[in-house]
Structures are given as structure tokens and as C-alpha cells.
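Appendix B, example 12.
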Amino acid sequence: MASSRAVQAYDILRSRIMDGTYGAGYRLVIDQLAREHDISSVPWREALRRLEAEGWVDIVQNAGATVKTFDTNSWQRTMRLLARLEGLATALSAPNLTPEDIAAARQMNVRMREALRNLDTMQFGVLNRQFHELVCSKCDDPRLNELVMAEWVRMDLIRRSAYWYAPGRAMESVDEHDGILDLIEAGSDADTIEAAARDHDVKTLEAITKYDEELSDQRAQG
């Protein structure tokens, strides 16, 4: 029972961190959580330790737990790792993708362009995630799949507490999606597909890093 309660507490905390209810820096007070959800303090402590190990919260002795605040450097490290992991996962998945999978991915690109025209960045983000999940979905390496998924989840949180895309980068990224699909559809070799998928993420990293530096310079001058 205690274990199931800890899992329940973990699920509550993680979902509220992910949906933004508990934003970066939010204090997670065990007594308050216990009262709100009718779960004793021990499961909350277990859940917080698990979230700390996964990198979602910071626990400071005598100060309690807070939702972790991610900075630009954290985003860059995550993006560099994701570029390599996702590049490999896409290359391994490519030979197993069906024509129906490719068609579905292309339709996602159409909808992403429509979302950008409507200035719907939330919908764009959902579709972008679905696209990358699809092109990686037929990778036959379970451990690699776990690593990619973990970094996607971490990236979702970092984006929510930082920024989305640099101006113009979103549309460029959709064009690159089409290019990756063209390579897969043409039966290109694994190294070529892996490089294209990796470079796609690296270009996003470079564009946002440059934009963030420009904003910092403007604030410094301003």
C-alpha cells in the first residue's frame, strides 16, 4: 500500500510539473500536499526523492523541495545529447517505417505549417513532438528508446520554463522534417539519415542559442 501511495504521489507531482501547475521554483510543501490529497507525508517524501533523482526537483536540507529551474546551459546540454540519441534512433527506425507512417508524418508537417500560420505555438509543439516520436517509433533498441523518451520529457519541461523557437526557426524545422522523410522514403543509408536528424536538432540549438545571446545583448544595452 505504501508503495502504491508513493507512486500515486509521484504521478501527481510529475503531471503538475509537466502541465505547468507547479512551475520552476515552486515550493513543494509536504504538509500541504498531504492535506490536499489525503496521502500521508512518507509517500510524498519518497516521491520527491525519486523526482530529485530524475532531475525534476531540488531538495535542500532544512529548506524543503522546489521545482528545478532550468537555465540556458541545461537546455543546451540536453539538446546536444538529444541530437545524437534521436539521430541514431531515427536511422534505426527508418527501414521499418511503412508508407503509411511516412504519409502520417507528412500530414503532421502540413498541420505544423498551418499551426504556425495561425500563431498556435502550443499546437505546433504537440505536432512537432508527435512527428519525432513517429520517425523514431520503429527503432528496435529498447534502451535507446528509453533514453530518447527521457530526454524528450526533460526538453518539454525546459522549453516550458525558458522559451520556444527563435524567430523563423520553426518553419525551417518543418522544411527539414520533409528532407528527413525524403531520405527515409528514398532508402538512404543509415549514416546519412542519422546525420540529417542530428543536424536538424543541432540547427535548432544554434538558432536558439544565437537568439538568446542577442536578447541578452539587447537587455544589457537597454
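The domain at 2-67 is CATH 1.10.10.10 (Arc Repressor Mutant, subunit A). Residues 190-221 form the longest helix (32 residues).
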